[in-house]
Amino acid sequence: MSKKKLLLIGLLVALQCPLAAAQPAAGVSERMAAAQKDAALTASLQKTGRRVAGSVCANCHGEGGNSVLPDVPNLAGQNQAYLLEQIRSFSDGKRRNSFMEGIMKALTADEKVGIVLFFSSQEVVPKPYGNSAMVERGAQYFKKVCVACHGDAGRGNEQIARIAGQQLTYLRTTLHHFRDSVGVRTNPLMIKVAKAMTDDEIDAVTAYVSSMK
Q1: Domain boundaries along the sequence of the chain
Q2: How much is the average pLDDT of 61-86?
Q3: Residue 23: what are its φ and ψ, rounded to 5°?
Q4: Contact at 8 Å (CB) between 183 and 96?
Q5: Of residues 16 and 36, more confidently modeled
Q6: Is 1.10.760.10 the CATH number for 132-211?
Q7: Residue 17: how many other CB atoms lie within 10 Å
Q8: Rounded to whole angstroms, how far apart are CA atoms 153 and 69?
Q9: Among 76, 52, 72, which Cα is nearest to 64's?
Q10: pTM metric for this prediction
């Protein structure tokens, strides 16, 4: 049995939440809406999110959402609605990653909303890129192409991901997935943009974006 499968089994046992008993994803939107109207509920769910982040997510994403693995995304500072949509996508299989799909199916609605509230309130720690010429080329490309959706600061909006300060390797891999249409990510606009990018442009723009605060 692979290490990933063993880890997943261990996490599910630790959560004491079998897949068959997981709450339906539909409850996530309702719980988020309720939290947005109730400060006490928000605080309670954030505590739940902190607990889950520490016991489950920290192994890959870091306890505060700054990833410990280069090919795993930072979740700190990510937009709430975007994070929630990714949870839904993993839960129903629209976004493909067998490990993440299993984890999301094992979490309750409150745990899912809790990790969204917790991670979105954390501060991302960008990693400066050493090649200033590469960063400048990436900045020029970003200002011509990416700014229209992700904004001047790379922070997106409620429907579009924050990419500022994101993991370099993760960003690069994601753009290659979009460009090569491997089926892991499905976003028509990003696929169209990525298909027009050269390897050098991908390297440059990810160097710039990953170093943004």
Answers
A1: 3-120, 132-211
A2: 95
A3: -70, 145
A4: yes
A5: 36
A6: yes
A7: 17
A8: 24
A9: 76
A10: 0.83
